[in-house]
Amino acid sequence: MSEFLKGSIYVGLILMFGSYTWYIYQQKNKNESGLIQHQVEAGKAIWQQKNCVACHQLYGLGGFLGPDLTNVYSTHGKGPAYIKAFVRGGTTVMPSFELDENEMDNLLAFLQHVDASGKSDPKNFRRNLDGTIESQ
Predict the structure, then answer these.
(1) CA distances (Å), origin 36, targets 16, 39, 60, 121
(2) How confident is the model at residue 37 (pLDDT cuts 50, 70, 90)?
(3) What does pTM read for this prediction?
């Protein structure tokens, strides 16, 4: 195979990879309206500003002082009212946070979005040879 052909194939692959990457990053999340997406992003910002990850985990990653909150939104006996009570009231080890109604709605939208993305325990994931994971 000639050097010119090898170079052409190499350049072509790089251009295809770059084009596909650009295409993927330009896609909007079709499952969410703009308002919901805005709330999720604002809720994530609150999660980060209040440093919730220092004590709590999402997807098994984070602190260990508090529980993993990945699926707290859909857990039986918990949900939005449960989350609001803990955030506003605090516990002996968790401070209470004075979030206004809009901030609380945004935080709940973020936790609902995280919850809808799947189960949290990475120990139960099956690792595939191509680097992806699947729940068992």
Answers:
(1) 33, 5, 25, 26
(2) confident
(3) 0.67
